[in-house]
């Protein structure tokens, strides 16, 4: 919000405070000031000139030789290239020695041999942006009013003898998106009550609003207040200079008196308005409703908008004529031929306006205010003020009455607290009279006693609803710098990591020790990436108002982000990449909030061991990564409860090299190789990844791992080799061996796997070492042989194993 110091001084006495001082005090009370600009400090020697003569220069198609009275003893000659310069005009002249906004210094010069004693300035040369220059001055100079005094300083006439305070308004302080809201804020700071001029509305009794228009609202939850006035017998003209100046300095281009008044009232009250050309409505009925899916509307920018049921529209009873709160329709906008105006003032449901503005990529000053909220107490006042101004500037008449639907009244919120609560929270010693004074400065009605504080908040501060809000207002106006600084008085307690923190820290250290670097990815991503590698079939959790389409949905897996990081590194010649991440994933639930789960994931590509004079290169494969995961389980002490089950249910993974991971029959993740087509699309070589749910290990604290002394008695081992079907899983064989191996079986190790010559197609040869140990005595040969024979029988019976 760009606040004009001069405009603000119309309602407050600012004679005792400079723009810089005022900006500093506003910052100290909680509204951030981005900066203060004073254009007059950058401009000098710029005066009002009266063009006495203007003639086309010979042999030039655009230059004019002008004679200009600038208040000196003699008129000066100035060469001007503006196409709209004429004799009799009052113009802005930069005399020799003048300094302009772009740093240009004006000197006496010659153009094509003709002496030029200065420059007739355009608004752009004075520092105005192209986007705010009025249409009649876009390609030339700006013409001042006839009553401008020749030879005097020209800056006040174009509003540059002013200072501008740029406020960075937070969403909760949308009241400061209006000059009146800022006036109340500045008034509280300066202990003044702002005064605003009254509205002199004169209605024409020959017609009533019922003769022109009737309004209706399909759903008052979408549109709680809708009001309309009609101004007839208008002549559309340019706005007066005072109005154009205020709009240009606020960043709005002047168009004509009617449109400019609606923008002026929006800046003054924070209440957006819209003016319809009444005759083009072709109806005496206005209805506010949701758009139908098949409807379209050509907006003022000439674009055809395809509407849906999330869009709120203004209709003439049949077809849309405006997007409510966002932009008017091209078919009903005000033109130079407009004679009668239907003027709208309303309160629309903020979420609908935001959805419409976002979905159509159509943000405006109007939609921004509707999204953040409006002062419902000034809807009628803003409408009346605008109607009176339009009638005055266009020599029109305001039809008697207002067509309206009003299902909601302004609320004066009463908030209760106590002096003790305020002082205890802020650490202050404020008295009853101190609080009375603060609430009076804020313009709040209050009843303050030693026991209780009742504050009635006007509708212009709709952000104040609870006790904490009142305490914040007291802190702001009393002064944050006056709040005492104290340290908390607590007993020092020894701190330690929770079990969840211990597991998380151990996992991070373990992955780093295995050569994986930690990555941190953004939890928000695209909808497509959010769904990839998901552990559940639910739709991703999407934000209602994302910053961009690239950050629209919450991730359901860590893999997508890690693959993006791997791809980024590989594209920059880092061929061997190993990354892991510990983070949260999100799952849609029936409740309001999504379910958050902690996961650990890793991705490896390239070589595990690089080629050297000692070792040959070893590339990453499924078993290398599985070994990292198995060792992590083993260190946690849960390896006995872990199963790896082959899976073809993951479309982005290699169908023959992927497994689901189960812990106590609970699916906790997956491990496998990225599908070759997916790897090719990302320009990656063989890439192996895993993702595991950490929550089961974090939330279920395990028994402490106990270490036992080395056994005194020797153990023994037996080797077994056999042929089984290729489809038989190593994990199932281990389970069978442990079940049949007897109580002295301690470990089983696979030391050979063979398929090929002398082995039947569709079968494989496996060789294992079984280790036996009795910690309390020396094992006997018969005991081991008995147990070993049971293993052979179990394998033959269950898998038709051919023992070799």
Helix content: 25-40%
CATH superfamily of the largest domain: Phenylalanyl-trna Synthetase, Chain B, domain 3
* Count of discrete domains: 6
CATH classification class of the largest domain = Alpha Beta
Give the helix tally.
20
Measured on Cα atoms, how large is the radius of gyration? 40 Å
Distance between the termini: 87 Å
How many strands appear in the DSSP assignment? 42
What structural class do you assign from the helix and strand content?
alpha+beta
Shape estimate: elongated
Main location: cytoplasm
Domain FDX-ACB: 711-804
Keywords: Aminoacyl-tRNA synthetase, ATP-binding, Cytoplasm, Ligase, Magnesium, Metal-binding, Nucleotide-binding, Protein biosynthesis, RNA-binding, tRNA-binding
Domain B5: 410-485
List the keywords.
about 800 residues, alpha+beta, Phenylalanyl-tRNA Synthetase, Chain B, domain 1, OB fold (Dihydrolipoamide Acetyltransferase, E2P), Phenylalanyl-tRNA Synthetase, Chain B, domain 3, 6 domains, 6-stranded antiparallel beta sheet, 20 helices, about 25% helix
Write the layout of secondary structure elements.
Blueprint: E1 2-4, H1 5-8, H2 19-28, E2 32-37, E3 44-56, E4 64-69, E5 76-80, E6 90-99, E7 109-111, E8 114-116, E9 119-120, E10 143-144, E11 164-168, H3 179-190, E12 203-208, E13 214-217, E14 223-232, H4 241-249, H5 257-269, E15 273-277, H6 278-281, E16 285-290, E17 296-298, E18 304-306, E19 312-315, E20 320-323, E21 327-328, E22 341-348, H7 350-359, H8 365-372, H9 379-393, E23 397-400, E24 403-406, E25 413-417, H10 419-426, H11 432-442, E26 445-448, E27 453-457, H12 467-478, H13 499-513, E28 517-518, E29 524-525, H14 527-531, E30 553-554, H15 559-570, E31 577-587, E32 595-605, E33 607-609, E34 618-619, H16 622-636, E35 642-646, E36 653-663, E37 666-674, H17 676-681, E38 687-693, H18 695-699, E39 716-725, H19 730-740, E40 745-754, E41 763-772, H20 781-799, E42 802-803
Parallel strand pairs: 12-23, 13-16, 28-31
Antiparallel strand pairs: 1-11, 2-11, 3-4, 3-6, 4-5, 6-9, 6-10, 7-8, 14-22, 14-23, 14-24, 15-22, 16-19, 17-18, 19-20, 20-21, 25-27, 26-27, 29-30, 31-32, 32-38, 33-34, 35-36, 36-37, 37-38, 39-41, 39-42, 40-41
Helix pairs in contact: 3-11, 4-5, 5-9, 7-8, 11-12, 19-20
Protein name: Phenylalanine--tRNA ligase beta subunit
GO molecular function: ATP binding; catalytic activity, acting on a protein; magnesium ion binding; phenylalanine-tRNA ligase activity; transferase activity; tRNA binding
EC number: 6.1.1.20
């Amino acid at each position: 919000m760009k606040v004009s110091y001069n405009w603000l001084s119309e309602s407050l006495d600012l004679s005792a405070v400079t723009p810089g001082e005022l900006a500093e005090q506003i910052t100290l009370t909680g509204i951030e000031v981005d900066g203060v600009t004073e254009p007059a400090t950058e401009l000098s020697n710029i005066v009002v000139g009266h063009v006495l003569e203007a003639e086309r220069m010979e042999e030039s198609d655009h230059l004019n030789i002008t004679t200009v009275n600038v208040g000196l003893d003699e008129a000066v000659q100035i060469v001007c290239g503006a196409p709209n310069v004429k004799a009799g005009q009052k113009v802005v002249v930069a005399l020799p020695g003048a300094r302009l906004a772009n740093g240009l210094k004006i000197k006496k010069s010659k153009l094509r041999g003709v002496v030029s004693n200065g420059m007739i300035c355009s608004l752009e040369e004075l520092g105005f942006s192209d986007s705010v220059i009025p249409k009649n001055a876009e390609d030339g100079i700006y013409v001042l009013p006839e009553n401008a005094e020749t030879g005097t300083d020209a800056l006040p006439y174009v509003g540059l003898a002013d200072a501008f305070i740029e406020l960075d308004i937070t969403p909760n302080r949308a009241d400061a998106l209006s000059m009146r809201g800022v006036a109340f804020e500045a008034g509280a700071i300066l202990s003044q009550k702002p005064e605003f001029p009254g509205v002199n509305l004169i209605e024409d009794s020959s017609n009533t609003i019922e003769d022109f228009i009737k309004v209706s609202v399909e759903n008052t939850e979408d549109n709680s207040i809708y009001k309309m006035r009609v101004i007839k017998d208008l002549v559309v003209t340019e706005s007066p200079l005072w109005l154009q100046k205020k709009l240009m300095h606020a960043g709005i281009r002047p168009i004509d008196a009617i449109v400019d008044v609606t923008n002026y009232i929006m800046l003054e009250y924070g209440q957006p308005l819209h003016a319809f050309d009444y005759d083009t409505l072709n109806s005496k009925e206005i209805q506010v409703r949701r758009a139908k899916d098949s409807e379209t509307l050509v907006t003022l920018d000439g674009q055809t908008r395809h509407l849906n049921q999330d869009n709120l529209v203004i209709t003439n009873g049949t077809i849309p004529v405006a997007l409510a709160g966002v932009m008017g329709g091209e078919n009903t906008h005000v033109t130079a031929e407009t004679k009668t105006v239907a003027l709208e003032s309303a309160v629309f449901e903020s979420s609908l306006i935001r959805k419409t503005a976002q979905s159509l990529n159509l943000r405006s000053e109007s939609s921004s205010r509707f999204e953040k909220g409006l002062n419902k107490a000034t809807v009628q006042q803003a409408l009346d003020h605008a109607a009176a101004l339009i009638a005055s500037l266009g020599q029109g008449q305001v039809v008697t009455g207002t067509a309206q639907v009003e299902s909601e009244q302004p609320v004066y919120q009463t908030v209760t607290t106590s002096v003790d609560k305020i002082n205890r929270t802020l650490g202050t010693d404020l008295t009853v009279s101190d609080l009375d004074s603060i609430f009076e400065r804020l313009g709040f009605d209050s009843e303050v006693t030693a026991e209780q504080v009742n504050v009635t908040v006007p509708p212009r501060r709709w952000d104040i609803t609870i006790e904490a809000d009142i305490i914040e207002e007291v802190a702001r106006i009393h002064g944050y710098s006056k709040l005492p600084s104290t340290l908390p008085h607590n007993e020092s307690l020894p701190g330690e990591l929770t079990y969840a923190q211990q597991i998380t820290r151990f996992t991070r250290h373990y992955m780093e020790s295995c050569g994986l670097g930690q990555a941190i990815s953004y939890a928000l991503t695209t909808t497509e990436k959010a769904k990839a590698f998901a552990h559940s079939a639910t739709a991703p959790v999407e934000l209602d108002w994302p910053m961009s389409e690239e950050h629209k949905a919450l991730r359901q897996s860590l893999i997508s982000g890690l693959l993006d990081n791997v791809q980024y590194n590989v594209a920059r010649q880092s061929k061997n990449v190993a990354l892991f991440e510990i983070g949260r994933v999100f799952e849609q639930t029936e409740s309001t909030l999504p379910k958050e789960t902690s996961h650990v994931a890793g991705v490896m590509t390239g070589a595990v061991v690089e080629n050297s004079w000692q070792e040959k290169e070893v590339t990453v494969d499924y078993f290398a990564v599985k070994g990292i995961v198995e060792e992590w389980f083993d260190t946690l002490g849960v390896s006995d409860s872990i199963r790896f089950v082959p899976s073809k249910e993951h479309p982005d993974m290699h169908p023959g090299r992927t497994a689901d991971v189960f812990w106590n029959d609970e699916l906790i993740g997956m491990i496998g190789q990225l599908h070759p087509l997916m790897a090719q699309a990302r320009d990656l070589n063989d890439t192996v990844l895993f993702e595991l749910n950490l929550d089961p290990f974090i939330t279920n604290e395990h028994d402490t791992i106990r270490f036992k002394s080395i056994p005194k008695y020797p153990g023994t081992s037996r080797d077994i080799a056999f042929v089984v079907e290729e489809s038989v899983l190593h994990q199932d064989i281990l389970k069978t061996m442990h079940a049949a191996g007897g109580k002295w079986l301690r470990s089983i190790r696979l030391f050979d796997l063979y398929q090929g010559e002398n082995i039947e197609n569709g079968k494989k040869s496996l060789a294992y070492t079984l280790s036996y140990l009795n910690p309390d005595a020396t094992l006997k040969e018969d005991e081991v042989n008995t147990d070993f024979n049971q293993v052979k029988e179990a394998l033959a019976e269950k898998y038709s194993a051919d023992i070799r």
